Amino acid sequence: MKRSLLLNCHFLPKRARVLWIGVFFVGLCIGGTAQCAQQPLVEVPKAFKNAAPGDPALPPPTEAWWRVFRDPALDALETPALAANQDLAQAIARITEAREQARIVAADFYPHVGLDFGASRLRTTNSGPVQQARLVGAAAPTVMTSQLVSSFYNDYRTPLDISYELDIFGRIRHSYGSAHAIWQAAEADRRAVALSLSAEVATNYFGLRALDLGIDVLHRAVALRHDSVQLNQERITAGLANSIDLSRACVELENTQAELDDAVRLRAEAENNLAALCGQPASDFRFPARSLENLAPPAVPAGVPAGLMARRPDLAEAERRLAAANEQIGVAHAQLLPTFSIGASVGYESGKEAQLVESQSRALALMGTVSIPIFEGGRNAANLRAARARRDEALAAYRATAITAFKEVENALADLRQRTAQLAAHDRAVVDAKEVLELSQKRYIQGSVSYFEVVDAQRSLLKVELDRVQTLNARFAATVALVRALGGGW
């Protein structure tokens, strides 16, 4: 590229050529040093404080991270979601737009060539200045005239126009670098949208399965309440109980049935939410009931914080936008400096259509242009300061994104660790609550306690079981959140 730029000045006189070459190399130095890479300053911790000791390093992320759960039903949801979701479709369209914008800017690296056909009819004026002229053409006299005569004449032209801006101070180069970085940022944005979408699908899927497990618990509780009502009816018939115990049993049955109806409603809403994420009409979407009971979340290594910087697509997007803003500083700086252009026009021009393509009608013009900004009212300097401010804004956004990324990983690690311990406690509580209910029922049948103790034991068992379901769902959600915070699968 440098050599071709130098060769383009071969038509200039010797002194002008030397001056041109000097300006060229000075421009390269100024243009190269004007744009200094702004390295993002982010303090990266050495380790995650909530990670388990000895966590292995993470390999590069994969977009199909959900396969680590080894759940075919989840796989069947994620694929259509990524194919049909409209948010992701918009992100893909933004990539195409950014790519074509970069190609538009890249067109300035090449000469602009245009072929213009023109025909015009003109009239001279008698009141114009007197000038010496020579008529051209096959039938034109060879004499010179200094008198301008008012007349009409035709002008036919077929010029091939060539223009080329010498990118001495890097305006085109920095413009393309900015557009290319925006293109890369759009690609990172697509990966961020895909990761967010797949994580939301997984979270809703596990939430739906948790609702199915909760509905199973409530169904068993309703059946248990039915048995209690029947038991009290039999004891009243035998004269061993009173109507108050039967009323209490009926109240517990109706309350539990109401909880079951509410859980069924929540399940229908969760199914409709999942349909929207998968890009399908809710009326046509059906997902069979599957319990969360026999599904165990995988162990997720956290790796080291330094690896997080290269894994998260939102960090990659923020870094590319910072690079684009940095390149715009070079564009703004180049606008303070001269612009050098060369051009040529080759073709035919004649006053008669029949003589247009004859050798005597050939026309040639070589041009060189230097545009120097002298006074713009402070516009270019303000543009440079604004570009630097946008770079500082992008740098702050990058740092904020990095800080948020570390926070999300730490929150997910702490949540996952506590949910695991909480789930183990709930498992023990369920076993104890079942034993209490069994003893209470035996003592009630023996007449040792009132039915109120049985009711209290039933309520305790139902609460503990439902709490366990919520904790199990929260554990899966924390696992998904950790994978998302780490930037994808491993």
Helix percentage range: 55-70%
Helix segment count?
A: 10
Number of domains: 2
Average pLDDT confidence is 83
Strand residue content: 5-15%
CATH class of the largest domain: Mainly Alpha
Name the poorly predicted regions: 1-12, 15-21, 23-38
- Number-wise, the strands total 5
> Largest sheet, described in full?
5 strands, antiparallel
- For the record, the CATH architecture of the largest domain stands as Up-down Bundle
CATH-defined topology of the largest domain: Outer membrane efflux proteins (OEP)
End-to-end Cα distance? 43 Å
Shape, principal axes of CA atoms: elongated
Task: Annotate the secondary structure layout.
Blueprint: H1 2-7, H2 14-34, H3 72-84, H4 86-106, E1 112-115, E2 118-123, E3 152-166, H5 171-237, H6 243-277, H7 305-311, H8 313-334, E4 339-350, E5 362-371, H9 379-445, H10 451-485
Antiparallel strand pairs: 1-3, 2-3, 3-4, 4-5
Helix pairs in contact: 3-5, 4-5, 5-6, 5-8, 5-10, 8-9, 9-10
Quick overview:
The chain is an alpha+beta fold.
Structural descriptors:
10% strand; Outer membrane efflux proteins (OEP); elongated; 490 residues; 5 strands; alpha+beta; single chain
